[in-house]
Amino acid sequence: MHREKTRVVQIGDRKVGGGNPILIQSMTNTRTQDVAATVAQILALEQAGCEIVRCTVPDMEAAEALAEIKKQIHVPLVADIHFDYKMAIASMENGADKIRINPGNIGGPDKVQAVVATAKERGIPIRVGVNSGSLEKALIEKYGGVTAEGIVESALDKVAMIEEFNYENIVISIKSSDVLMCVKAHELLAARTDYPLHVGITEAGTVWSGNIKSSIGLGLILHQGIGDTLRVSLSGDPVEEIRSAKLILRTLGLRGGGIEVVSCPTCGRTRIDLIGLAARVERLAADYPLDIKVAVMGCAVNGPGEAREADLGVAGGAGEGLLFKKGEILRKVPEEQLLDALKEELDNWK
């Protein structure tokens, strides 16, 4: 897969763009002012594999909380700002590694200049974010509605507002809940700029529907080589966003590591609780940093073949299953002991 060539931007101790690995982001849903709750959620996100985290900063208390939050976490911290330029400046003064703003809604050119001056002084990148839901009335009228072309024009207009003050330490984010519109907008934008792009399908929905929409949209975008960081936006536990993002990247061949669990859809031949077992194996596998494939199969038709192709696997029978490793049968295991048998193999994997 060809990766679009973009500029390199330093965010804390991480680099995005320029062919660097695509980094996974999420956003806390705690009150940022509640330092303990916010730190706890960020640490859980880190454990799941989050590489950049964003917190909303609606007031000065939240901005000041960033200083203490930053002391207790291990990933770059992004401050999400809307409407008040003072929050952007305060966030940078309290240690934010990047700020996310829409230069069109923080109070005019003089306010944008003040934000850019602080960012320039501290070497802090600015993420310019534009969502289809906040597209300017003039662009809606120009294009006859909310369109990919309008979203791109809006984003580039906002970038120009920052470039006017001789600052190009920028990441661009354009998002829409309309999957195909979002894909088209990213295609158009990638052809017109070399700034690194943060990609995502905004307001995608619940863990169920949001994962489907995000997988389709991000799959189409990333497979074209577009995107330098990503977020899977879900109405749910932010940790689910990280799990989904890792799987999307791994499925596209853009990231290795982590156990890939494959399981059969079950049929009338299945004689074990395959659905329950597969779910438990998936939860178990998330705790191991192994780059292997584990197969959970329900019967003797495709089970042995799939299990043999995997590094580790089980193929179900009548209340029992065969345990496979590297294509070889290890032993027959009672159904109630299959999960423990897999865990034992993973604990001792070499």
Task: Report on the architecture of this protein.
- This protein has 350 residues and is of the alpha/beta class.
- It contains twelve helices and 15 strands.
- The strands form three sheets. The protein has an eight-stranded parallel barrel, surrounded by five helices.
- A hairpin with a 2-residue loop joins strand 1 and strand 2 (14-16).
- It is elongated, with a radius of gyration of 23 Å.
- It starts with 8 loop residues before the first strand and ends with a helix.
- The model has no long low-confidence stretch (mean pLDDT 90).
Name the descriptors.
350 residues; alpha/beta; eight-stranded parallel β-barrel; 12 helices; elongated
Topology, please?
Blueprint: E1 9-11, E2 14-16, E3 23-27, H1 35-48, E4 52-56, H2 60-72, E5 77-80, H3 85-93, E6 98-101, H4 109-122, E7 126-131, H5 137-143, H6 148-163, E8 170-175, H7 179-190, E9 197-199, H8 207-222, E10 229-230, H9 238-251, E11 260-263, H10 274-285, E12 293-297, H11 303-309, E13 312-316, E14 320-325, E15 328-334, H12 338-347
Parallel strand pairs: 3-4, 3-10, 4-5, 5-6, 6-7, 7-8, 8-9, 9-10, 11-12, 12-13
Antiparallel strand pairs: 1-2, 13-14, 14-15
Helix pairs in contact: 1-2, 1-9, 2-3, 3-4, 5-6, 6-7, 7-8, 8-9, 10-12
